[in-house]
Specification:
362 residues, Aminoglycoside phosphotransferase, alpha+beta, five-stranded antiparallel beta sheet, Aminoglycoside_PTrfase, transferase
Length: 362
């Protein structure tokens, strides 16, 4: 027997799998921090398949909670308190992030560390364009805003805002290759020849990185919130960037490569599960991948000559990371139906990464 949300620790102890939320101790924690009182209602937010996000409602308050998924977890993954540290650090900057209201390292409260942030009003674009964006000019603006918001993140002075030590500013790409190669050995449930080919190619063609910046690590349309577009005086705009689980200090072009690699456009075949998540951007009005890359190059002043390498890196990392999710499915620690798609989805991502590698520099 399993249940994601229960009322008490006694109910949690009787389950075969640990719950994700325990209402009564969570309500007591929030009350003690002045973040609402009374009966607590919780519901899942979005379609994230890594760290878990809930909308929390109490008397007079709506909050958003982030916690790790159920164990077992890969080493160093799903560190939500590290995520909260970055959000608090960049709060005074131009980076478009939600405000963290409280953190909790005490796993006895709900069974895992967690943090609570403000609820931001807007839309997350996943499978369909909401009515407020039912115009080509608004969809183009969203794509342009997505690039501009990333440029803002990369412009943050991470030393000035207290993130010295958050990540090593040199050797980022080499560390990514070592870390994810090791993570593959931890996560893998089968041999994937295309992934092994990409691993070797990436290591043999590492580009020279420029000055280090904050790197989001999972920057895509599904991880931002869009508001506005109610009338001509209130155009569409990105108001918040979410899911900073993979953030660090490193090469900013890794974010651009990931954004481009997961950006669907007309004429694409649906390649792997990551492309499926971004299929909405195939609709008329959204910029093409090349336009996103060109806008970033113009706004940031960074050359995008090695963008194919960064795109291949992005899909390779996604395949490695998602294999860990597939491993959890096989172990019976999750029943998320998305993970069943990874049986074929991970190899497809690896094949797409190899296609980019073979085409690099042409």
């Amino acid at each position: 027997m399993s249940s994601a949300i229960v009322d008490t620790h006694a109910e949690a102890a009787a389950l075969g799998l640990p719950p994700l939320l325990i209402r009564e101790p969570l309500a007591a924690f929030l009350d003690a921090h002045g973040l609402g009182s009374g009966p607590l209602h919780a519901e899942p937010v979005g379609e994230g398949h890594s760290n878990v996000t809930y909308l929390i409602r109490l008397d007079g308050a709506e909050l958003v909670l982030r916690r790790p998924p159920r164990p077992p977890l890969p080493p160093s993954a799903h560190d939500v308190l590290r995520e909260a540290q970055l959000l608090r650090a960049v709060e005074p900057t131009a980076a478009r992030t939600p405000r963290v209201l409280a953190t909790c390292a005490d796993e006895t409260v709900i069974g895992a560390p967690f943090y609570v942030m403000e609820k931001v009003e807007g839309e997350v674009l996943m499978h369909a364009v909401p009515p407020v964006l039912d115009a080509e000019e608004e969809r183009r603006r969203v794509g342009e805003q997505l690039v501009d918001a990333l440029v803002e993140v990369h412009a943050v002075d991470w030393r000035e805002c207290g993130l010295t030590g958050y990540g090593k500013p040199t050797g980022y790409l080499e560390r990514q290759l070592r870390r994810f190669a090791g993570l593959w050995e931890h996560n893998k449930t089968r041999e994937v020849e295309a992934l092994d080919r990409v691993t070797r190619w990436l290591a043999a063609h590492v580009p020279q990185s420029g000055p280090a910046t904050i790197v989001h690590g999972d920057y895509r349309l599904g991880n931002v919130m869009v508001a506005g577009a109610r009338d001509a005086r209130d155009p569409a705009r990105i108001v918040a960037i979410f899911d900073w689980e993979l953030a660090t200090i490193g090469d900013p072009l890794a974010d651009v490569g990931y954004l481009a690699a997961t950006w669907a456009q007309p004429g694409d075949e649906e390649v792997g599960t990551v492309f499926a998540l971004g299929a909405v951007t195939s609709e008329p009005g959204f910029p093409l991948r090349g336009e996103l890359i060109a806008r970033y190059e113009e706004r940031s002043g960074r050359s995008m000559g090695d963008v194919d390498w960064y795109q291949a890196l992005a899909l390779w990392k996604a395949a490695v990371f998602l294999e860990g999710s597939y491993r959890r499915l096989l172990a019976g620690t999750t029943d998320d139906p998305f993970f069943a798609l990874l049986d074929t989805g991970v190899p497809k991502l690896a094949e797409r990464a190899w296609e980019l590698a073979r085409g690099a520099g042409r």
